[in-house]
Design a protein that fits this description.
Blueprint (H helix, E strand, L loop, with lengths): L2 H10 L13 E2 L2 H11 L6 E5 L7 H7 L2 E6 L5 H7 L6 E5 L8 H8 L6 E6 L5 H11 L3 E9 H8 L9 H9 E9 L4 E2 L6 E8 L6 H10 L7 H9 L3 H10 L13 H13 L4
Parallel strand pairs: 2-3, 2-5, 3-4, 5-6
Antiparallel strand pairs: 1-8, 6-9, 7-9
Helix pairs in contact: 8-9
The structure holds S-adenosylmethionine (SAM).
Length: about 280
Amino acid sequence: MEHNQYVNDQVNKKNFFIKKKFSQNFLLDENIIKKIIKAADINQDACVIEIGPGFGALTKHLVKNSKKLLLYEIDDELIPHLKKLFSNEKNIHIKHQDFLKTENIDEDIKNYLDDSKEVILVSNLPYHITTPIIMKILEESKQVKRLVLMMQLEVAKRLTSKPNTKDYNALSVIIQDQTDAKYMFKVPKTVFQPRPKVDSAVIRLDIYEHNGNKAFYKFVHACFVQRRKTLVNNLNSSYSIEKEKIKLILEKLNLNDKIRAEALSLEAFKKLYNIFLREDLI
Ligand code: SAM
């Protein structure tokens, strides 16, 4: 039976109850699935992790395109479907688990994949936990090299946006400090069962630094704390540094004293942070 028909049957005949708390929106469009696989750029020798395989729409292609596959699925009800679908596949390991509760991602990679190979993570994410999942991987794994993720369009734009755009915020800076973040393509809400309220998009994050500098990220958050306020005002209220002192530092970097955080590039944030640190102000 066609995958789409199978999923529609499960849902419409009430064999399977959609769980909103797990952000279950199942992907039904083969072309979009192929585009995600292409964006992941998986070498036949690479290993893949998938978070939330659901009914296996992406998984079916991932298994054909990789050496070994590790799945994390939280929903009890989906596990028998996955086990049945992949009963003949030796290279898939299914973990019935909340990914956020994984104790040691790299240990799982060692046990179920092959840690001498490139490890890529592909997921049509449970949208309500998009940021915690990305941060967990960046903070806890040294093995995962690339993330190819579907998420809410708005979040995808934020993570990949550049300075002086409306989507640029602290999270854009933090993600782009650790990864080469690329917006790939938009996915309309019509290709899911059930249909989500918002459109989605796929992004690709090639990781070049795992576990970045937390103190720097705290500083970036402080710079953006009130988006419409100037950097001088935000730093003054977050760290109680005298405004005149902040203006002098901005001047050293040839930055206007009315500048807002949204106008600063990642490099400018780093320079600014280093001066504040050197002068013992933060
Ligand atoms: N990959 C499937 C697809 O594209 O059709 C399903 C994607 S659906 C948006 C999200 C999936 O993540 C669901 O299967 C859901 O049960 C699972 N999920 C939700 N929270 C999870 C968690 N904390 N850990 C692992 N899986 C989770």
